[in-house]
Amino acid sequence: MPIDPDRAIGADLGETTFSWGVSDVLLYHLALGAGSAPTEPRELRYATERDLQVLPTFATVAATIRATEPPAVRFPGIDIDLAKVVHGTQQVVAHRPLPVSGTATAHSRIADVLDKGKAAVIVQETEVTGESGDPLWTARSSIFARGEGGFGGHRGASARIAPPERDPDLLVDVPTLPQQALLYRLCGDRNPLHSDPEFARGAGFDAPILHGLCTYGMVAKAVTDAALDGDVTRVGSWSATFAGIVLPGETLRVRMWHEGGRILVSVTSPDRDDAAVLSDAVLEPA
Fold first, then answer.
1. Which of 29, 87, 95, 189 is catalytic?
2. Membrane-spanning regions, if any (predicted)?
3. Is the terminal CB of the chain with fewer CB neighbours within 10 Å at N or C?
């Protein structure tokens, strides 16, 4: 079905009420690689109930962590084959520290649909409030749908954020596990692109690739640990563009610059000649 931007842009996707608990948070953190240093107190704050803190990127899975079916890309005016879709961008703004358990309501809408010629970009925005009605977080994401452009929509403005032309202030190498995608899919994203070799080949990849949101969460943790002393309450927002794939088992090279009160981040894969993984990445301290 061709994309109908007049119907899609601004479409109200309704409200969803959901709950999560301590075990959900622990599973998410472990799927990001938390606990790799199992005797360090700071690491155990991610991986055990004692003094548990919640990485704000948990917001990306909180509503769907118990999902067991592959996602569908069907919205008003939009119906796209899952094999054509990859994550484009992601931002989470934490309005206050996320609780280790709770119930919340998410209200989502299609904020924009961009026509990139050979591809379409669908932008979704979600506001999440707690049981008291106070805001918990705002999430804004985009998906990149190959072969779905050319419908006559607007292209959108560029939002590139170039890192400083100097050596990074901090550099951290973050290993991923060969089974990282198989772990992360238990957080509610059963897209076969990340587990089924045949499906991945049909989508144009040599092998299943790591979930973009897994990379997004792993890097958020790495930056929080390296630049904010592991204090998740100091993360105000975290945004990034998915610039390239990650194959499970690769290393993520995370470069960080302190610039204008923000932390600018660039992520590459040294296993593939420093191929770009995340770009335009910014952590805004709370």
1. 189
2. none
3. N
What distances in angstroms separate CA 147 from CA 32, 88, 117, 118, one per listed residue?
Answer: 31, 15, 8, 5
194 given a catalytic annotation: yes
**Sequence letter at residue 223:** V
Domain spans, the chain = 5-285
User: How much is the pTM?
Assistant: 0.91
206 is known as an active-site residue: no
Comparing CA positions, the residue from 258, 249, 76, 247 lying closest to residue 177 is 249
Which of the following is catalytic: 29, 194, 211, 280?
Answer: 194
Rounded alpha-carbon distances, angstroms, from residue 26 to 52, 178, 259: 9, 20, 32
**CA–CA distance, 32 with 181 (Å, rounded to integer):** 10
Q: How many CB atoms lie within 10 A of CB 109?
A: 16
Q: Which residue in 159, 161, 111 sits closest to 283, CA to CA?
A: 161
Residue with tokens 């960080």: 256
Which helix (H) or strand (E) element contains residue 213?
A: helix 212-227
Identify the CATH number of the domain defined by range 5-285. Answer: 3.10.129.10
